[in-house]
Design goal:
CATH class of the largest domain: Alpha Beta
Distance between the termini: 51 Å
CATH topology of the largest domain: YojJ-like (1
CATH architecture of the largest domain: 3-Layer(aba) Sandwich
Number of strands: 7
Number of helices: 12
Strand content: 5-15%
Largest sheet: 7 strands, mixed
Shape: elongated
CATH superfamily of the largest domain: DNA integrity scanning protein, DisA, N-terminal domain
Radius of gyration: 24 Å
Length: 287
């Protein structure tokens, strides 16, 4: 009881002396934290933050159980953690400094319009157009890589591509991936009922269980499905086979009906179900 009373006397009495500048300082710190979280959410630092959270939970358990050796190793490693984070997140830190010099800084800190896409709200027509385009490209053995976005942000990969912003049609997809055209190299990102970006570069999967005969296009499709909740449709340039990568799993040699079924499985999926899987994925990767 005496410790509680001492805590109250030391800290709670200070609340009475909060002035206008203290309130301004609290607001500024809150905005800084909010902007930092929004920025991290749109980069690969979000995945890193989840890993740090797991480590912190482990260290709390180690502290409770008095695992002195583990705590000593953690304290020693922490001395180099800051330098390691700077090296790993160098592209993100540079992007953050660039944004500080932009004129629309206030608008990015306090967004007046929601930048959140219509999550999963793509129509039956969009499904039919994607399937039709993939079937045509399969017959002509035209390679294609189509990423259908869901909840997770793809801003990190959109920055590597070219903005398109066109309604999804089979003709548009075929024209984009036609050989020797300016936009055929890389991936297309579909958000809702629109093709938003083309020629995007995706992370390659390092899954050793993937077949050795798979090329860069398939490994990129699996790679983006491992780090986001998007579904990727791949058309092979070598044999014309249609494949789908989702949650790190690759389904190969699909028919038009099977491709349509795959796309419908994520169409208009309830947001609460997605959110549940997303929180669940914080601690283990569902395959």
């Amino acid at each position: 009881m005496e410790q509680i009373k001492e805590f109250a006397d030391r800290y709670l009495t200070q609340i009475q002396f909060i002035g206008p500048m203290d309130i301004v300082e609290i607001i500024l710190i809150s905005l800084m934290v909010y902007y930092l979280l929004i920025f991290i959410r749109n980069t690969r630092a979000w995945q890193l933050l989840k890993g740090v959270f797991v480590i912190l939970v482990f260290l709390v358990i180690a502290e409770i159980l008095q695992m002195d050796t583990i705590l000593w190793i953690a304290r020693t490693a922490f001395q180099f953690a800051t330098i390691a984070l700077i090296v790993v997140l160098q592209p993100e830190l540079r992007k953050a400094l660039e944004q500080l010099g932009q004129k629309n800084l206030i608008r990015s800190v306090i967004p007046f319009e929601s930048s959140k896409p219509e999550e999963g709200l793509f129509s039956d027509r969009t499904i039919r157009e994607i399937v039709k385009g993939c079937v045509e490209m399969s017959r002509a053995k035209t390679g294609a890589l189509i990423v259908v976005r869901q909840l997770d942000s793809l801003a990190e990969y959109e920055r590597t591509g070219i903005a398109v912003d066109g309604i999804v049609t089979s003709q548009l997809l075929i024209n984009i991936f036609e050989k020797n055209t300016p936009l055929h190299d890389g991936a297309v990102i579909v958000q809702g009922n629109r093709v938003t970006y083309a020629t995007c570069y995706l992370p390659l999967s390092d899954n050793m269980r993937l077949s050795k005969d798979l090329g860069t296009r398939h490994r990129a499709g699996v790679g983006i499905s491992e780090v986001t909740d998007s579904m990727t449709v791949i058309v092979s340039e070598e044999n014309g086979k249609i494949s789908v990568a989702y949650e790190g799993t690759l389904s190969r040699g699909l028919t038009a009906e099977e491709l349509e079924e795959k796309l419908r499985s994520i169409q208009k999926k309830p947001t609460d179900e997605k959110a549940h899987k997303r929180w669940k994925g914080w601690f283990h990767n569902e395959k």
